[in-house]
Design a protein that fits this description.
With about 290 residues, the chain is mainly alpha-helical. The chain has one domain. Helix content is about 85%, strand content about 0%. The chain contains twelve helices and no strands.
């Protein structure tokens, strides 16, 4: 029995690691596209092609129609998702990959905080310590940019955008946690892509820059990576306890360093690693039972 359980956990861990790697590749692709297209347009394309991919999954799995309550709750989540994506994608466009991901690691701490405030889960001293550690890590990263002479207004705005995306992402995930046991996973992922695409349709039209044939192809890949990455993570968390898998999300920093170095000639500083370490340790302490 123990061997079977360990096998399930290993399979879940493999799926989680693959999901994190795929989503990290998506982040790198966003950064590349944002250098040529407006951030709003890139965000719209990510969700529009994600919706197309999700509908293909729906056609195969046939999960059924969502209820009115499901549409209402996910409609609220869609607004948070749009704001989160816009902030995070903007941060990716102006900050190095590793720095953006490190700042985004504050999200688990805010999830624990909002879980207590909204879902009445226990808030203990670990969460307060994690918040302090997270903001300390953020200050270290910002100080590193100041020391390097790269802390301009755009970089400050990017850091603020990354922090804001962590907060709104946490709110969206707490709302998801409240619905995850009631709604089909495929339905949730489909609405996660379709509703933001509809919200962004008009704003993207105002800033639209015609993509090249290659950029259309990258945009299609962007949507597919987002859907399959989230589906893999969801499958992993369905097989094993969140406490066993949560720390695997931090492997995205490894991918961010790798992709940043290969594709964008970015080399993280010691300040980035020190700040990321402090943020990660705080988040791990907050999530420990």
């Amino acid at each position: 029995m123990r061997i079977a359980t360990d096998r399930i956990v290993r399979r879940a861990a493999t799926e989680a690691l693959a999901g994190v790697a795929i989503l990290s590749a998506m982040d790198a692709l966003v950064k590349g596209l944002a250098a040529h297209l407006p951030v709003i347009e890139v965000t719209f394309l990510r969700f529009a092609f994600g919706a197309v991919t999700a509908f293909a999954v729906v056609a195969v799995t046939r999960p059924g129609w969502p209820s009115r309550e499901t549409l209402r709750v996910n409609g609220v989540r869609a607004l948070l998702i749009v704001f989160t994506a816009l902030c995070f994608f903007y941060a990716l466009s102006v900050l190095p990959l590793a720095e953006t991901l490190a700042l985004a690691f504050l999200a688990p701490v805010f999830i624990a905080l909002f879980g207590g405030l909204i879902l009445r889960e226990t808030i203990n001293g670990r969460i307060v310590i994690a918040l302090a550690a997270g903001f300390g890590g953020m200050l270290i990263i910002v100080h590193g940019k100041a020391e390097a002479g790269t802390l301009g207004p755009q970089a400050m705005l990017g850091a603020l955008a990354a922090l804001t995306s962590a907060v709104t992402y946490a709110l969206a995930m707490v709302l998801l946690r409240a619905r995850a046991t009631r709604d089909s996973l495929v339905v949730i992922v489909t609405l996660h892509n379709l509703l933001p695409a509809l919200i962004l349709l008009v704003p993207a039209g105002f800033v639209w820059v015609a993509p090249t044939s290659l950029e259309w192809g990258w945009a299609a890949l962007l949507g597919a990576l987002g859907v399959f990455g989230h589906l893999l993570l969801a499958r992993a968390f369905k097989r094993a306890e969140a406490a066993r898998l949560a720390s695997l999300d931090y492997t995205s920093l490894v991918w961010a360093v790798l992709f940043g170095y290969i594709f964008f000639d970015e080399t993280p500083t010691l300040y980035t690693f020190a700040g990321a370490t402090l943020i990660i340790l705080g988040a791990l302490n907050a999530s420990r039972r």
